[in-house]
Amino acid sequence: MKKLALHWQILIGMTAGIIFGFIMVQPSWGPEFVADWINPFGTIFVNLLKLIAVPLILASLIKGISDLKDIAKFRNMGLRTIIIYIATTIIAITLGLGLVNLLNPGSGISQDTIENLSSTYEGNSNIAGKLATAAAQKDAGPLQALVDMVPDNAVAAMSNNSLMLQVIFFAIFLGISMLLIGEDRAKPLKDFFDSLNDVVLKMVDLIMLTAPFAVFALLANVVVSADDPEILLALLFYAGTVVLGLLCMIAVYCLIFWFYVGKSPLWFLNKIAPAQLLAFSTSSSAATLPVTMERVEEHMGVEKEVASFVLPVGATINMDGTSLYQAVAAVFVCQALGIDLTLGAQLTIILTALLASIGSAAVPGAGMVMLVIVLESIDFPAELLPVALALIFAVDRPLDMLRTTVNVTGDATVASVVAKSLGKFGEPDVKDWDDNLDEVTS
């Protein structure tokens, strides 16, 4: 019997997790049971993906650059990648602003709802933490993002997944240096990273065997830990506006892929679906990165030297879904609180959201930190910032799951476009976890 495709296995796990979560919400002991006995398996799965993220970036990026043989090729690939990422982010922000101004979701939020949300989340530690993080980023100098890219200790950078840009910088620096010493002298080190890359990709295959069970655990925990349904209902119009924008952005990616790469959007979505579903479950581009790289390289045919550069960079600086969310959320809270936004203020939102997305960490919840920075750029009253975050906090987690899915889809799209433009888009070469099993069994 033919094995069920991975994305269908994950989808079944997600559906079962949501249903199980709703069942376990009913008994008083249900949420605690899920938190103690179900959620840890999802956490282990996410930790495993994060565990191999840095080794995968190091091995694949160094291998990709050392395979180029020509630094000029790397320069061309880098410029195209950055330009396309910036272009798609601007499209996402503009799309979000257009929808929120057209649908005006903030007009449906009553004063009673605002007061209820403010009192519910008054003193919330998560909101206080986001405000503190945003304040620290605002106080940094204009070139702090560049300073933060360069590690003073490569080993320390590799020990922290939030320092992904530093790992990418070190890998690029090492890869270019290997090119400059000549192929013969670089060969021993190149062979090491080639082998490491193969091993880490095999680890991805093994981890993905547990994906259906892991997303069951993750989604069950999301359901039992959800906020008051009445609060979620009050924010339904706002959430619907964000979801509509994210769906439109997926459509934009499909059109770009169709016109430029020349393959069916349905083919694209089918190949990238496991990465999208994991992005939805984990709310983390960084945690999903190993799976995204595996799907784009093996299942879509993007050559390693392109995927190994474009995707890690995208997981760090390409936040199209998050940027679209910033635009909708910023205008929504202004509408709800009766604050008028001029055209100049909305153009400022585009610029600030673009710059904030580049420095945003690829972890759950980073979008709210970006939102504070965006709101402060348009002179939003500081005393209303906690109220603004309280307005959207209840639905932030489900929207975070959706916008991370869009972020990952955007990364895969840009990798495909860059590969096609460089003649590096070939035929898929799918590998399974047991391809070499006969060599180690008697």
UniProtKB/TrEMBL annotation:
Domain of life: Bacteria
Membrane topology listed for this record: Multi-pass membrane protein
Residues in the signal sequence: none
Any one GO molecular-function label of the UniProt entry: symporter activity
Keywords: Membrane, Transmembrane, Transmembrane helix, Transport
Subcellular location: Membrane
Alphabetized SUPFAM superfamilies for the sequence: Proton glutamate symport protein
Parts forming coiled coils: none
Transmembrane segments: 7-25, 37-62, 82-103, 163-182, 203-224, 236-261, 324-343, 349-375
Name the UniProt record assigns to this protein: Dicarboxylate/amino acid:cation symporter
Taxon lineage: Bacteria, Pseudomonadati, Bacteroidota, Flavobacteriia, Flavobacteriales
